[in-house]
Amino acid sequence: MSERTLTGTGATPRANVGTVVWYRPESALDDAEDVPTVDPDERSAEHERFEAARDQAREELEAERDQTAERVGEEEASVFDAHIQFLDDPQIDDGVASEIDDGTPAEYAVRDAFAGPIEQFEGMDDRMAERADDLRDVRDRLVRLLTDGERVDLSALPEGAVVLAERLTPSDTAQLDPDRVAGFATVTGGRTSHAAIFARSLALPAVVGVGPDLESIEEGATVIVDGETGELVVDPSQERLDALDTGPDVEVTHERVETTDGREIEVAANVGRSVELEGAVEQGADGIGLYRTEFLFLDREEPPSEEEQYEAYVEALEAFPEGRVVVRTLDIGGDKQIPYLDLPEEENPFLGERGIRRSLAPDADLFETQLRALLRAAADADGGTLSVMFPLVSTVDELEAALDAVDEVAADLDDEGVAYTVPELGVMVETPGAVFMADEFAARVDFLSIGTNDLAQYVMAAARENEHVAHLHDPLHPPVLRAIARSVEAAHDNDAWIGMCGEMAGSPELTELLVGLGLDELSMSAVTIPAVKENVSTLDHERATDVAARALNAVTRGDVTNIIEDQ
Fold first, then answer.
1. Is residue 83 among the annotated active site residues?
2. Which of 19, 77, 335, 390 has the most crowded CB, counting CB atoms within 10 A?
3. Cα–chain center distance at 29
4. Residue 8 · residue 230 · CB < 8 Å
5. Residue 454 annotated in ligand binding
6. Is 152 within a domain?
7. Is 464 annotated as a binding residue?
8. CATH number of the domain residue 84 falls in
9. Is 180 annotated as a binding residue?
């Protein structure tokens, strides 16, 4: 058969080739409406069956939680804590009990009681929609136990298997053995799904959200899974197989690196969970260039306390006793929704109330608590330098209001006799407004950090998740490159350092271009750090500057690509 390519969302910068194994867990129940009726004198027994299944499910989940914590990390394992909580959710528990009281067998009662909450989550956006998979996971586990169904053992797949599925639940992905599985791809899902998070933690090639076309791939087919490009190549040609790059095979460097002519470049990691700190250290990160604090606020019923946040920030600082940890203040709205904050439904949330806009208005109390924790952590950590940056700042008024908030928190802590240190302060450059005002921003703060994912979206007016304009959402388009160059110049003219924490920074093939543009720091997923460090140590800064100058004079993306590829 001839080669063909399907596209989805790449979950991890790894690629591999293998043989398709379809994972289609069979439901023990169908959707038929002729559900058996339980006689009144047998309904107490159905309640007991449900309770027994729930107890057994809890035992399974606790065992899987421990296994996942050992293999992947405590943070990823915490999803099973959420599943255990779902077992005791009053809405679901009452729903099952009511169905059984009406004469519905326990397994059908579970199916029907979960239907409403699953539908409710599916109607939400992005990360919250993915909570529906958590509920499905718990539902299917209970139904399996109630019907004595057998569980597919994903840990015993043949070596070199590429798992294809409509979706993979946390329980499914926790079973995958990275030493045997070549990768996986799913019909549904996004970069923040549990499947994608597990893939990155295990450095497992994965493509999620491929869509219904994935169903066209037959069992036993040979496929390449490219988690960097988001491509799934079916029946690849020999030429394609020979050219397959399964990922960087370079030594980890724990020392800081510099170009051959002596310019030091800080290579840091992007993290969102404490479990990722260990991986960042292991991959040789110089520090943390983006600590996404919104992950502290997700998957819970109320915001984290000042003490919880303080401990998380200190933990990050202590992981890098000689490095810098750049913490981004709470960045919610847009594609990041938190139910307990009652975020508004907006027609275009990416152009709405998000980032610093919320911190200075409806979430001012949360912002104050976060700043208190950060200033305390800056003073108390044994090692590490704390830097704090504000997201989605577009005006000087916003920046000055944020700086005033820091001063007010410092004054309060001083009055209370609490030890604190005002950390380095910075601004994320993510909007055209920030680019045009970068000189004013840099005059007021210590550093700038370019978020290329959002910057490309706003400069090119191309939504990140819209496949119809995916070709425009690319930082190599000349307008985006020129926005980056303008921001770098503004920072250096005002004695501020400037970094980049978007996906662009973690592309080893772009390291020379980015160093040539003048960036002082590059921050990325930990898995790409070794390759980027190696590239930095082998390139000449003067030559890189020439490459960047030619790229900035290019007028099309194709011209930019040709300049990069010709090096």
1. no
2. 390
3. 34
4. yes
5. yes
6. no
7. yes
8. 1.10.274.10
9. no
